[in-house]
Amino acid sequence: MRRAAITGVGYYLPEDRMTNAELETLVDTSNEWIISRTGIHERRILRDPEKATSYMATRAARNLLEKKNISPDEIDLIIVGTVTPDMVFPATACLVQAELGATNAWGFDLSAACSGFLYALSTGAQFITSGTYKKVLVIGADKMSAIIDYTDRTTCILFGDGAGAVLLEPDDSGVGIVDSLLQMDGTKPDLLCMLAGGSRRPASHETVDARQHYVYQEGRSVFKYAVKGMADAAASVMERNGLTGDDVAYLVPHQANLRIIDATANRMEIDTDKVMLNISRYGNTTAATIPLCLSDWEHKLRTGDNLILAAFGGGFTWGATYVKWAYDGSQYEIPEHLRSEMAHS
Ligand code: ACO
User: Fold this and answer.
1) Residues 263, 231: contact at Cβ < 8 Å?
2) Measuring CA to CA, how many Å separate 70 from each of 2, 19, 75, 314?
């Protein structure tokens, strides 16, 4: 049986860090509040105004292709999960295709907020299992700092910038994407959204004055839906595939809030040491959190490891995906930025 297997991962993180101490100078908040309510210590920010999401997405893809020694012209399809495209159109995927030199690829952007990577992964996998393509790049990339209001303490502490990429290839040895449960409830779009800049409320002096080009979130309500959505989806995927907590090597959760992740892990009955966590370092990078986790943990992953990927985001969109890992990650070195962090800790 042919499955779509993740055969490589890559990442890009901007060098600049925004610490909780810096946020204390911008809004009425504290390091203690941010850590206890979210688990975030710092985030990466792409401060260069000339650089946007495609810059990070291309670098994540290039990191992957160089590691795998694959030429960009071998790529058939590029899907970019993002809510911060460089422009409304053309798609960020077009810009990535050009900068990467993926001359034989077509592609598109996929908008599903924090579930963008899971939705894109599942979409890309269909082109592999159908036999249509051999190499699909799935990228999650967001320059959240471009749409964050740094005078709003309820949102500005949460988000960071980054990009992660995976390569999907066909495999018939039993590994790969086994199952996906993707869901949506579009009845509450106003709880987490960017009000203006689309066709409903095009940019105007009024929308700018009303600060409607920034992320708006009713955090407490979203929190309740996120805890239930992520935990339910992860538990359902485990149940319908006959998996118990002991069978799962890692939970790979979207990194929105440490408390949401803990609730999901509890429901799955898995130990905390089997939960991929990097929210303390990068905050919520929206579509990039899950591939950034895979990249950070790649060196620890082994062929056949059972992973449950789970996400919840604006829309609402949410879901969980069961992946049997396809290769021995020990052949790859620990990413440079993690080595220096380990040396400092
Ligand atoms: N510093 C200090 N105090 C703050 C801050 C801050 N940065 N932000 C809010 N507060 C205050 C509030 O004003 C409130 O004060 P009050 O009680 O006097 O009114 C108090 O802290 C508690 O506020 P809550 O909003 O209830 O805090 P909560 O514990 O819910 O944490 C948070 C807020 C972190 C946003 C949480 O609700 C959350 O994580 N929500 C879900 C986020 C999520 O999963 N989003 C989906 C993915 S994102 C995407 O799709 C783009």
Assistant:
1) yes
2) 22, 36, 9, 34
In whole angstroms, give the CA distance from residue 322 to residue 262: 19
Task: Single out the catalytic residue among 20, 94, 193, 254.
Answer: 254
Task: List C-alpha distances in Å: 145 to 33, 46, 72, 333.
Answer: 21, 7, 29, 30
* Mean pLDDT over each residue of the chain, to the nearest integer: 96
pTM above 0.70, yes or no: yes
What's the gap in Å between 23 CA and the centre of ligand 1? 15
**332 neighbors 298 (Cβ within 8 angstroms):** yes
| Non-local CB neighbours of 227 within 8 Å, separated by 6+ positions | 259, 260, 263, 264
Question: Which ranges constitute the DSSP H helices of 139-185?
Answer: 153-156
Q: Domains in the chain and their CATH numbers? A: 3-174 (3.40.47.10), 177-336 (3.40.47.10)
- Identify the band that residue 344 occupies on the pLDDT scale cut at 50, 70 and 90: low
Residue 312 vs residues 226, 273, 316: alpha-carbon distances, Å: 6, 22, 7
302-330 tens-digit pLDDT: 999 999 999 999 999 999 999 999 999 99
Instruction: From 85, 82, 61, select the one nearest 73 (Cα to Cα).
Output: 61
**Rounded mean pLDDT of 159-172?**
98
154 CA distance to ligand 1 middle (Å)? 5
- For ligand 1, which residues put their CB under 6 angstroms from it? 29, 33, 37-38, 113-114, 153-154, 157, 192, 219-220, 222-223, 226, 256-257, 260, 284, 286, 312-314
Active-site hit among 20, 63, 94, 114 = 114
